[in-house]
Design brief:
Glutaredoxin; Glutathione S-transferase Yfyf (Class Pi), Chain A, domain 2; 2 domains; 7 helices; alpha+beta
Amino acid sequence: MITLYHAPKSRSTRMIFLLEELGAPYEIKLVTIRRGDGSGAADQNNPHPHAKVPAIRHGKETVFESPAIVSYLADAFPDAKLAPKPGEAGRGLYLSMLAYYGDVLEPAFMSKFLNTPVPRGTAGWVVVEEAMTFIDQALTAHPYIAGDSFTGADILYATTFGMFASNPMMPKLASVDAYVKRCLDRPAYARAMAKDAG
């Protein structure tokens, strides 16, 4: 049994999407988190080291941070086909896109959101427009972020792009709009949204 530590309307909602895609048995434990508006508080029952979400427990394993959870669960439940297996074609691109999400894309968006100039030439940071040019090229070449098949990586990208769709900091790209629709039209996403809403 997988236990998801979840705060509604947060980044852990996309992990419900992942769990629904996996078809694996899971339970949700609600936790409180510190919210951007100052509400909420850290929850001592949350195994994340900074009391953030998402985090999961699976057997004796505790896993936190979205890319790590996607990687761990997609490999733990290979029958769901949410990741190329080690040694299969496309594995390298899939892992690269998981890392790109947390290491490049999120910092670019957060820098723009916080109106913090990107320190060019340090830490390998890029601006949103540069990152989205790469994403546009990837989604023009293939229907999904890591190739021709839907993977766990798409859960991260599509939910993020969907969240920012009406935000002026998100470049309007036809490839991204079509991609978000393709991913978020999946039945597992609808089930996840229903569970998040309570």
